[in-house]
Amino acid sequence: MSDTFDVIIIGGGPGGYNCAIRCGQLGLKTAIIEMRDTLGGTCLNVGCIPSKALLHASEYYATAQNEFQGMGIGVSGLKLDLDQMMAQKDEAVKGLTQGVAFLMKKNKVTHFNGKGKIVGKGEVEVAMSDGSTKKLGGKNIVIATGSEPASLPGIEIDEERVVSNTGALSLKSVPKKLVLIGAGVIGLEMGSVWSRLGSEVTVVEFLDHIMPGADAEISKQSKKIFEKQGLQFKMGTKVTGIEKLKSKLKVSVEPAKGGDAETLDADVVIVAIGRKPYTDGLGLETVGIGTDKRGVIDTVDHFRTTVEGIWAIGDCVKGPMLAHKAEEDGAAVAELIAGKAGHVDYNLVPSVVYTKPEIAWVGKNEQQLKDADIKYKVGKFPFMANSRARTNHQTDGFVKVLADATTDEVLGVHMLGVGVGELIGEVCVAMAFRASSEDIARTCHAHPTLSEAVRQAAMGVEGWTMQA
Ligand code: FAD
Ligand code: NAI
């Protein structure tokens, strides 16, 4: 045995690295194993961060093209330098992954670059990137191996013309015709990026609505906005195959409920139909840890697997596949290992889609409340009536507050609008303190800000919205 630790973490994404930092802070001797050359996982390397860097830059480009003139700003000679746009994205990724490596050192976490495999209770073998093998012993093992893109049977991802979310972040040129399979978060975010940069985008979605999980009203209204921006949707449709010709791709689609097939031409296809836990070669079977049909690791309670001393967190266990959820899991499991009371409230994990306008929500939506037979009141406020949104000429969308009909406790908040990804934070705090809609309505918000729309929607629950 070359070394022993209190905690061995397999996977250096938001779940793993936040767990490592908290373990270090709590005085636990900690190791983190990551098979990528850089730490940060999917999120920093091929997920949240590069996608947001491209969303930000492409939004500037589209704004300069479509909105500057109306604000009295003349632009001439505007042109896209895709290589530079990709370089600034890579720069953001590099800075942040290096930052995580620094945090490991600062918190005295030992970093092993290689693939970890559980070979027994408390035993992990690392196939190091330099070709050597290391055996580590640990009182606790935390599995934080994350997820990988789900695939479609019969459709081969080559990351050049038929790409997963990874290839979608690094296309070498702007495809003339782009087909996206899946109108979920990646479909809408990456569809927005490439549409802004000039692609003709068609999104093929199996269901009859976009963004499963979002409030139905928001899903409906946002679809209309994305359509106005140029995204085309083929709803209730499935892709049955892709023929790769030299000059183009021929995408066969047919109605999900059956009907006539048709063919769409494309230069690039992005497959974004969800993600699945990644546990390849991890050795779960060696210690008898099971997974469900989708590969989600079985946990008994509070991140404990069926084997004592082995824990699992983040995308590879149940719950939303989100970086901040993985972070919460990571910190909580560290505290549990240290004998403290780690806890995550999964009802308060916000969702944000970083399109323009953004979509953000936390808590229950109307359908979920109806299904649970909970009586609720609704307060709504449109950004059209918000002074800051008007000055910014960004008036699409609204805020909707759902509060318990008897107690007035806020049960869910759903927003569509520019900047709502930031506004959701105040709602999470309010809900963590079990605020009533009246608590938010009676809290002074600065004027003129978009956050006043949250307050006004809360006021709307009691019918005393002030702004017209
Ligand atoms: P991961 O980040 O997947 O990290 C797991 C790590 O474990 C990986 O680096 C992997 O290489 C490593 N690993 C796996 N097996 C082994 C092994 N045996 N040995 C060693 N290392 C191993 N979430 C958000 O909240 N906001 C967003 O804006 C957002 N945008 C996204 C955009 C895209 C395009 C994608 C794909 C995802 C996005 N996500 C976003 C989701 C987010 O990236 C994940 O929820 C998050 O990364 C999960 O963290 P994790 O630590 O559980 O797993
Ligand atoms: P998703 O689950 O958000 O959406 C997948 C979509 O594909 C769904 O609408 C589904 O109905 C559809 N679909 C499934 N099979 C299909 C088929 N055969 N044909 C057509 N449509 C089909 O998954 P997505 O967009 O791939 O993202 C994966 C995960 O990554 C998300 O669930 C999310 O957790 C995370 N993510 C989060 C982001 C954020 O927080 N802003 C951004 C990007 C990803």
UniProtKB/TrEMBL annotation:
GO terms for molecular function: dihydrolipoyl dehydrogenase (NADH) activity. Keywords: Disulfide bond, FAD, Flavoprotein, NAD, Oxidoreductase, Redox-active center. It catalyses: N(6)-[(R)-dihydrolipoyl]-L-lysyl-[protein] + NAD(+) = N(6)-[(R)-lipoyl]-L-lysyl-[protein] + NADH + H(+). Its cofactor is FAD. Its EC number is 1.8.1.4. It is an enzyme of class 1 (oxidoreductase). Belongs to the class-I pyridine nucleotide-disulfide oxidoreductase family. This is Dihydrolipoyl dehydrogenase. The lineage of its organism: Bacteria, Pseudomonadati, Pseudomonadota, Alphaproteobacteria, Hyphomonadales.
